[in-house]
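Posting this for the archive.
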Amino acid sequence: MRRLLRILLLKPILWAAAKFSSKPDKERIFKALTKLYTSLQEEPGKRGLVIPFEYKTSKFIIFSDQHKGRRNGADDFMLAEPNYLSALQHYYEQDFYFINLGDSEELWENSLRQVKKKNKANFEAEKKFLGHNRYIKVFGNHDLFWDNDPLAWWHLKNIYGEKVKVYEGVVLLTEVPPTNSRLTNSRLTIFLTHGHQGDASSDGNWFSKFFVAKIWAPLQAFLRINPNTPAYDAEKKTWHNHIMYEWSAEQQNTLLVTGHTHQPVFASLTHLERLYKKYQLAEAANDDVKKKELKAEIQKREKEFSAVSVDYLTMKPTYFNSGCCCFSDGDITGIEIAGGCIRLVKWTMREGKPVRMLLEEISVTELIGKF
């Protein structure tokens, strides 16, 4: 019966979600990002932190979109938990600073009591960073509770054992050596926020909240549907990422890092766009072995993306997206800033054990040289 209902209802449910929720609006998103970015710099500590760091020695890990649930059919995080716990243990032991970039808890579909009960190990793993003053928690649209509930402070203290302030964004500031780029000075700014700001489909849209809480969540639980694959609403997610890129490209000496779309982006390119670019380079070098390898990977990944930016070959490397910690296969992705480099990493299962895989890497000095 469940299988039959899944076949019958999957397309109508996805059609309704796409039909009635709003598409990303460029003007609204630009306005919201600019307002937050300006606020963080002019009034540090109010909506977010400004943190100076040494780009060669400081270490940050950015994860987002865990969507921790209550271990039912709608809990997209459940399969990813082993990778998440192993990753946090690794970064804790390596003295990384953990920036939790929003939608850490799925509070549209679950009560906080249910999430707390089923995620004690995850909260304890996060608590370790807090105990060493290496933890920042940012809210997203699915855990907006942390920003607007008057008792949020009490719940956070109950979970972590001490007061935790939740922010809307973070600004990291560092000084870099002079380069031949168009930098007007040696300062690089990294602006981090969840990324839902100004997106009418999740930032203040009544239907999206009603649909998820009252219709989608019960059906997802029963039909065991995980929407966190690019096949579901991928075009809208890709368009949202592109608007984020366009905003970042207009800023001076600034990188933007977000989550929200669940699509990893590195130096403004999705995985498929980077494969296309590498293929063109292999073609120019007459590297037939590399071309064959890349062509096979492209054919595999083309199924996951419905759109490619028309100007992907000339895009400035100013936008990054951490992906998510709730992929349907249990993998998680994140952004590392460490050792003078920015990296996109994936934690996945190999022979029954979580392992870290490096997907992309670029040095900070090389990055700003491309501005």
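The CA atoms of residues 106 and 178 lie 44 Å apart. The chain is about 40% helix and 20% strand.
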